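Sequence, please.
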């Protein structure tokens, strides 16, 4: 890839897919699907409005590949019965001739007992999450790990059958793939755990099975948390090594998951952004990951990109693409206003009333409740600066 500081220049990925510009709609937790994992009308409308604008590609909220891996009430890609729903999501995400990408995941040890059943929680090892009141998962058996690899491949196949142009593997934000890579969560001493090479095996195996399943002409990306800020977590050097290997597995892009691309702050597992963290990397992850993949995969920056200057800063740092999340939540027409130079017309705060957020911004009611449960994460009229 050749990074460009011009966010309006097109980019052709290894798969042959050409993105019309460098802006992606980031995958955002909607928490708004039906209990069976099918998309609701409110969810489809939320996605359709944003996909109708000029994004280079639209990435969906993550779809669970196995019913025991549901970490929130989102869409599913775990069975053929999800195909009709996935087709509707693909139509919404592609908009008017755009590129639609299905993100797939398994929650592992942070799956919700109320969604999966009280005894279904499993992870790489019997080690609880850092989240408050976390339950201890049971360690996955070898045959279950092989079954999960197959489930990721099958979910990717459903995505392609449903009409998506690409698949993003969610290997970040403390979900199962991240857990296998983390020495904090993975204490195994077999093929799937131990040293860095062994802890990379599951993420790389998922990437390999997805690529083999969908073929070379379908875009495949991988989302990664660039380092863990928790004590004993993996480092940016570790993540860069994984990114290099993922590029060798044919990933079209590596999507760096950050809460703020400038402040070097990945999502903490306990979700408490008020605490200071033990481990902080001095290097910018965008530069480190871009150097590691060395042009073999595109690099996606995310987190706190709200203005054209932000986007250009991230691109100049080494990113090829920028993912827009909160800015497009607050203003569904964000990318069109940016392109038109109508910067003063961009909405920067949520309305004060939850009902107004839902109706004005086309955000499902359950998603509104989720957003408001994280005070200060998105500025709100009358409450935040």
């Amino acid at each position: 890839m050749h990074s460009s500081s011009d966010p309006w220049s097109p980019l052709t990925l290894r798969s042959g897919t050409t993105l019309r510009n460098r802006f992606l709609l980031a995958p955002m937790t909607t928490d708004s699907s039906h209990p069976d994992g099918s998309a609701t009308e409110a969810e489809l409308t939320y996605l359709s409005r944003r996909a109708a604008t000029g994004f280079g590609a639209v990435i969906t909220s993550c779809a669970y590949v196995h019913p025991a891996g549901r970490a929130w009430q989102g869409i599913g890609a775990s069975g053929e019965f999800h195909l009709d729903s996935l087709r509707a999501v693909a139509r919404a995400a592609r908009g008017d001739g755009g590129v639609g990408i299905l993100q797939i995941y398994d929650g592992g040890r942070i799956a919700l007992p109320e969604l999966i059943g009280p005894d279904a929680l499993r992870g790489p090892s019997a080690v609880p999450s850092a989240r408050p009141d976390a339950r201890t998962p049971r360690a996955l058996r070898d045959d279950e790990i092989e079954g999960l690899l197959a489930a990721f491949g099958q979910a990717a196949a459903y995505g392609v059958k449903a009409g998506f142009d690409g698949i993003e593997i969610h290997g970040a934000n403390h979900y199962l793939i991240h857990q296998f890579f983390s020495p904090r969560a993975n204490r195994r001493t077999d093929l799937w755990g131990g040293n860095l090479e062994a802890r990379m095996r599951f993420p790389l195996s998922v990437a390999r099975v997805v690529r083999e399943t969908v073929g070379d002409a379908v875009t495949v990306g991988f989302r990664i948390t660039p380092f863990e800020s928790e004590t004993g977590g993996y480092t940016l050097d570790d993540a860069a090594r994984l990114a290099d290997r993922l590029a060798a597995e044919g990933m079209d892009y590596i999507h760096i998951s950050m809460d703020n691309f400038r402040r070097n702050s990945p999502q903490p597992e306990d979700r408490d952004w008020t605490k200071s963290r033990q481990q902080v990397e001095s290097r910018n992850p965008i530069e480190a990951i871009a150097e590691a993949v060395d042009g073999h995969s595109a690099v996606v920056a995310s987190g706190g990109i709200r203005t054209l200057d932000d986007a250009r800063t991230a691109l100049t740092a080494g990113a090829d693409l920028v993912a827009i999340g909160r800015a497009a939540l607050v203003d569904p027409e964000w990318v069109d206003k940016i392109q038109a130079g109508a910067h003063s017309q961009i909405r920067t705060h949520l309305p004060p009333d939850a009902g107004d957020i839902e109706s004005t911004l086309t955000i499902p009611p359950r998603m509104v409740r989720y957003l408001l449960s994280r005070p200060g994460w998105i500025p709100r009229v009358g409450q935040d600066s």
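Residues 349-385 form one domain.
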